[in-house]
Amino acid sequence: MANQNHDAYKVVIIGNGGVGKTTFIKRLMGINDNDIQTGRYIVTSAYARYDLHLNTNHGVVRFDVWDTSGQEPPGVLREEYYQNSDAGIIMFALSANPSFVNVKMWDDDLCSVVPNIPRVLIGNCADEHQKVKERSISGITRRRSFEEYIKMTATTDRTDKLAEPFLRFAEKLMELSPNTLHLV
Known about the structure:
Elements: E1 9-14, H1 21-29, H2 34-38, E2 47-56, E3 59-68, H3 76-82, E4 87-93, H4 97-101, H5 103-113, E5 119-124, H6 134-143, E6 148-151, H7 159-173
Parallel strand pairs: 1-3, 1-4, 4-5, 5-6
Antiparallel strand pairs: 2-3
Helix pairs in contact: 1-7
């Protein structure tokens, strides 16, 4: 399942607009952005690509990360973003039930283009009042066969926490034992 180029693993980050996808990847990459500091929401136009390098105990692992806006309508445009993905992150806001309700739609959309890829579900905004029930989250994680569910706050969590989904993907794609890959 490794990328054809063996250069970088393509990971697409999807979910409703405003759930923290861009903040998540920018913070992980160490991009100091005034909008992150002020909490101001800026819509990602269509998509943005990031070249993420993680220094791990197995060397540098590179990801081609596609951050989608969450505003694009279903269909050809979104399908183009998903093509050739090695893994996917579906993010929702723990403080916004509608973003959780749409997890199934985002997962169906992604899996219709790239079936059977590893996917991680991220519940963001753990520092805010949680409106989504843990029971609902564990149910969808199990039913939809997500590799893992990670609860985080993209604006304040440490880099090692933000890197977790990428480390899990790398373990799977590099055929390593679970929880053996870590940042150095």
